Amino acid sequence: MAAWRARAVPVGKPSSPTATLDATRIAGGLWRIGSGAMERVAPGDYVIRARLTIRAGAGWNGEAVSDDIPLRVVATSASDARSSQRAVNLAQDALLDNRVEEAAATLDARLVRAPDDVAVLTARALVAERAGNTLAAVLCLNRAQRAMTAAGGGPPPIELPELSTRLAAARLAPSAAAENQPKWSWPPAAVLTLSPETVDPAPSAPTAVIPSLPRAVPATPSSMSPAASPGQAPAPLTPSPPPRVPVPVAPATNLAARAGTPATGVVLPATELSDAKIRADAAGQWAASARAGSEYGRTQYSAARATGAPNVPIVGNSPDAWCPASKDKGSDWLEVTFAKPVRAIEVRIRQNDAAGAIAKVEAIEPDGTAHVWWEGADPLVAPAVRDIAWFAVRVPKTDYLVVKMKITLNLASGPGWKQIDAVQLVAADGQKP
Questions:
Q1: DSSP at 142
Q2: pTM higher than 0.85
Q3: pLDDT value at 186 more than 80
Q4: Of 78, 218, 315, 352, which shows the fewest CB atoms inside 10 Å?
């Protein structure tokens, strides 16, 4: 029998010192070979073998050995991919021993050199979550999502979707104020500073001039917004905004199909919009069906994904939202239909990725008559740390019934795949749909 080179140790402790195994009961366990043990193993080809030995007890006694699992150990490399994987593995090893601060330091050393490494950012978000710093975890996840978008997509780390869901739920729970979080739970300044390659440029449309945003955001915990209290809308997961120059946007074109009743559509400020309030609005109804000029997929990313209540938990690419077939060329449109025609006062559009591309919003009567509620350059100024963005247009109570809304996007407004998760139509006078 070949001598063993590294021995695995169990992770965690069993809930009971005894186990009953038969045809209906299967026992499982988790073992790991620590980084210290693996560092003593020379490069070469090996096998992993599990052995179960029971020498006493009322039942079966004996030994069972698993099939061999081949393992190749390679020499240490300084390549980016190997360096990142090593940092993630070392951090996971530290987390299994509850050495959370050590895991943070290992990942931070890598992030200082590669702040847009998606795998390392995801692992860093897990560390921040373990430390109880939900906001720091979201900052890392936002950066990872942005890096994936800039790179043209690709499969996310396996932990990312579940982590996104947990963090979205954590935003609604009480948590410690940001300034009370341990310093090591925050990612390094390199993560909180957007690189020129990942900052969305200002739209080039001649109707609006949007000044460039500062490239850096404060890296101190005191500059972050704490989570909301229960019952309140979640606090925006963005740093305190730096001073901004007012954005001169040309007056929007507001047209109506009927003479004498001009629509005076107004884009609402972001401070009036929040997931919690919008979801709870009894006068609002979600789209029941949808069609689009194009779709990135027939099932995932299709127009049908923009129907119903919001189901994308966190900013970034999601197959549960409508995505046009083109990324940043030309224009495209989404038309949604509502189950009950109503006299309306507002429409709300939930953009989960590459927000800021809306160019026109139209209301459509049951007979097909269209009314342009708003048209122009999207006034959204992207924050340094992205979050899901609501675009809402409010008009005087319509004297006609609205059954459809059509949203036109200017895909060339900026980089990234534009995505819409949901559309809500708000009835006038609190009328329930």
A1: H
A2: no
A3: yes
A4: 78
